[in-house]
Structures are given as structure tokens and as C-alpha cells.
Amino acid sequence: MREKAAELAIVSNKSFEASTAVNLHHFDISSALQTSLEFIELITIFCNKIQATIPHNSAEYVNGEFDLNFSRGVIGRHSCSYALKVEDQQLGELKLTRSQRFSKDELRMLESLLCCLIYPLKNATLFQKALQMAYTDPLTKTHNRTAFNDTLMREIIRANRCGQNLSLIFVDVDHFKSINDQYGHHCGDMALASVASWIKDSVRASDVVFRFGGEEFVILLADTNLESADTIAERVRSDIESHTLAYGMDVLNITASLGVSTLKDNDDTESLIKRADTAMYQAKQRGRNRVCLG
């Protein structure tokens, strides 16, 4: 029979400091948790540190705000679960399981030790939010150019190391300048935000959408060859064309031109981007609202 889930809310510095003093003396948990601002690493450090005191077979950490679900070990029959919170900030939920029931003394000890985890998780939350702001385009809610540059370099290294494919799709909104000129920048902003939403709805969960600049977007497709990337690009193009945007009394029909490239053996970031960008301009020159391969 599973233990009833417990809920932990640390709401004052006083309770945190008291628990920290005890735990530093016995387990040195707090100092170890100061070494990272990554959620998964913090949970891993914490679970490793408490294993001798509170043996457990598995741990699961869920943080809905950052779409994070991390688990380790083999799930046992009995569990204890804690919703972590400081002040009014939710910090996710941690669940431990094992084959034997957790004793009341173990649960009291665990609740004391969790005080050491609360503020490192809060710091990680603040850090991750800052990263999100730095890497997110505020208008379209896609990743920005800085995020693209960092991600592309990392994915090229990974693709070469693992012998996998990697593809790019460049997307450029057709006649965007005329939208701004005729209806104003507010309408142009609405159009860009709408196109970004349509693109995100069209691609796979594993694909990443970035705003490259102006009216250009780029889609990064890991482990995807040219043929599959072409299929995805055509779906994106078709989905954009199938939507309309109402602005005042007018209805705008928006289309886009797309260019596709796939990583080759001698490619670097510049050459891979250039082929996709060139293919996208070929689509423009051939009449727009189409996909070209680079």
C-alpha cells in the first residue's frame, strides 16, 4: 500500500536556516547543492546525499513550469511525494519510492533535509527564467537568434559525433513589407505572431522554431534527412497558406517561401545556413509560396 503523499511548504528563512545548520553538520548537503543551477543535477545531488540516511529505489521530479519530468531508478511499491514551495513560488514535486514503507522518523528526517533543497531550486528557477528571457523572442514567443546560434553549433557537433542527420528549414513571410506599409506595424506584428504559432503547430515536438530576424523564421530538425525535412517544410507551407488573418474589416491571406538544407560532411554552421537561405530565396524568385531544396 502506498504512503499517503505529503506536502511541504517552506515559507520562512527561519525554518530553512535551522534545518541547514543541522544538515550541514551531518550530511553536508547544502554546500553540495550550491554547485549547480540545473534542476536535474540538483535533484541528483540531493538524492545521492540522502541515500544512506533515507534509502530509496527511485526518484521522480516534475516541474510543470519548465516542462520537466526527470526520473531515476526503479519504481518501488511505496512512495512519498512532496510539493515543493517557497513563499508563493511553486518549485515542482519530488517523489521517492522503494519496496518497504517509509517510517515516520524517515519522513520527518526527509522533510528536514528537503529544506536544504528548497532555496537551490528557487535559485535554479530564477536562473532558468532569466535564460528563457534571454533566449526568447518576446513578440513571437519562439527562440531568438542567439538561441539559434548556440543550439545549431551544439546540434552539429552532436550530429557528427552520433552519425545522424540534421536539417534546417528557412521560412520567409511573403510580401511582409506590403502588410506593414498598408496596415501598419501593429498588423505586421500580429501577422508574425500568428505565423510563428502556425509553424509551431505544424512541426513535430522534437523540432525547434527560432525567429531568425525580421519576417524570417528557421526550424531546426534533429535526426532528419533531406527528404523528411522537405515533407515537413511542405506541411508548414500548406498550413500557413490555409490560414487567414482578420484585421479590422479586412482578411489577409498570408503565404511563405521556404528553403531546406541538410548537414553534409564538410559543413559548418555558416555553410549549412547559407544553403537553406539560398534555397529560400530561390523559392521567392520562382513565384513564392513554395519549398526549394538547397
From TrEMBL:
Annotated source species: Methylomonas subterranea
Enzyme Commission no: 2.7.7.65
Catalytic activity, as annotated: 2 GTP = 3',3'-c-di-GMP + 2 diphosphate
Enzyme class, UniProt record, top EC level: transferase
Taxonomy, superkingdom: Bacteria
Domain named GGDEF: residues: 164-294
Lineage per the UniProt record: Bacteria, Pseudomonadati, Pseudomonadota, Gammaproteobacteria, Methylococcales
Stated name of the protein: diguanylate cyclase
